[in-house]
Amino acid sequence: MPNEMGAPQKRLLIMPKKNACCGDGANTLILACSGASNVGQISNSVMVEMNKKGLGSAYCLAGLGAGLPSFVENSKATKVILIDGCPVACGKVTLEKYGIEPKEHYVITELGIKKSHSFADLEAETNKALKQIVKNS
Ligand code: SF4
């Protein structure tokens, strides 16, 4: 598309650095399934709260699921805390694809929270899960 001077406009492409993502260099990575249910979203909120408490660095399970080499390498080289929403355990299955064993694995439905597609009580349910997880971390 030409600029106001009539010259063709150059597009600025910003390429990400190979390992440029949240969590790089962290001693502990926290991954969550972040699924589309209350418990999936609670797993994500718990990950964020644990990051805020300094218990580890939130990391992208999607990057690992996509098989991006830097995500796989980082996850293999570091202690991983994994939070799944329900027993389908998408996060655990993803880690297994790359032979990664999490040091800690939590399943939100095992913490007294029923899976549903209602997002009405996310804050209270997140606090309930967080209390139990942080006690064990
Ligand atoms: S573990 Fe359960 S809540 Fe999480 S993404 Fe898989 S099916 Fe959804």
Task: Name the ligand types.
Answer: iron/sulfur cluster
- What fraction, in percent, of the residue positions are helical? 25-40%
Main beta-sheet annotation: 4 strands, parallel
- What order do the helices and strands follow? EHEHHEHEH
Sequence of strands across the biggest β-sheet = 2-1-3-4
Instruction: Using the alpha-carbon principal axes, give the shape.
Output: globular
Number of structurally distinct domains: 1
Work out the number of β strands: 4
Q: Return the structural class.
A: alpha/beta
Rg over CA atoms: 18 Å
Instruction: Provide the low-confidence segments as ranges.
Output: 12-17
Euclidean distance between termini CA atoms: 54 Å
Give the mean pLDDT.
88
Description:
Helix 1 (38-52) crosses helix 5 (122-136). The chain has a 4-stranded parallel sheet, with helices on both faces. It has 5 helices and 4 strands; from the N terminus they run E-H-E-H-H-E-H-E-H. The protein has one domain (30-136). The protein is of the alpha/beta class. The N and C termini lie far apart (54 Å). Strand 3 (79-84), helix 4 and strand 4 form a beta-alpha-beta unit. Helices cover 37% and strands 12% of the residues. Iron/sulfur cluster binds at residues 33, 35, 37, 39-40, 84-86, 88-90. Iron/sulfur cluster (SF4) is lined by residues 33, 35, 37, 39-40, 84-86, 88-90.
